[in-house]
Model the fold of this input.
Amino acid sequence: MTKPGAVKPVDITPKPRVVLEKIGNMEWELTEARLDVDNDVALWSANPRLQTTLMSGVSSEPDLEAALRETNGYEVLRKSIEELGQMEPVYVWRKDESSKYIVFEGATRVSILRELNRKHQVGAKQGRFRQVTAKVLPPHFGELERAILLARIHVRGTGVRAWGRYIEAKFIFDTIEDKAGRPALMNASDMGRAMEKSLSWVTRLRDAYKFAQKFIEHIDDDDAEKIAGEKFSVLEELSKAPLIGPMLREFDNPKFDDLRGDVFDMVRNEVFKEYRDARFIKEFYEDPDKWAQLKTGEKHIASRLALDVKTNSGSVKTKLSSIEQMVQRAIDRKETQFDEEDVEHLENAISRINE
Done:
């Protein structure tokens, strides 16, 4: 009970800071908060960054933290946070006040803060890493908005923030394709705008991801998805290659099943040292000898064969072999009028070869 004449205590607790942030077509009011890294927040088991690292069904907090420690840039970011502290807030969301906040973006920072908090239980830095600065997404923040947020930060991001190519492709596929009775969150054009990428870029990665799923089915290995992630740049080049790419992606045509199986075996056996070697798959396919060498499964053999293709592409023999097609195209387009002098040049060349 307050005594007569006593001054009533004034609540000087500042209100939480609210920031406006445009995500998609809307401006959202996001509350900034300081949250306990152990008691207030939980890592997101469906974090796209971890999809090639986690085994199916693994979702415990220690397993998620262990997987994050294996991601690119973790150690560099850990040293930065230990020296300078957390520089950027994470994004968290919770359905209601009875549950923990789910970390939709910034799981690596949360994991690092937890590690550093355990490390500095005593000393000058004790308690410094106990809390994480977060932007709190409202309860009605939906799947579509979450996809746009992640695309903006990670697909357009660089360095530590950037996802690998396979994760980008999986994210695109999951967002723009119907799955398990759930309609697509957006179409390919909207996805491109959200990521500031072209429509062709989006569809190319979607198609490459579908191709990679067939690779996973083919090798039938416990680490199949991890292997697909590691070899995704090669698989992408193969799926978009001239002539052979469309055949490889014609999944419903049994005529190309053996061809696809041969190519997947080549990828599994590491005949392609890097994705640039796969760019010559059309030339390899059209050369029976080179194709037979690839099918042996010799490691990195495509690198040597690619060098042969590049070396011979400017040779006299290669140019001679293309003359007939060049002449025919010129005739069809009516772009050149050949005369007796041109015929004489060809006849002289033939005579030189026969000498």
Notes: The chain is about 50% helix and 10% strand. Residues 245 and 261 are 13 Å apart (CA to CA). The mean pLDDT is 87.
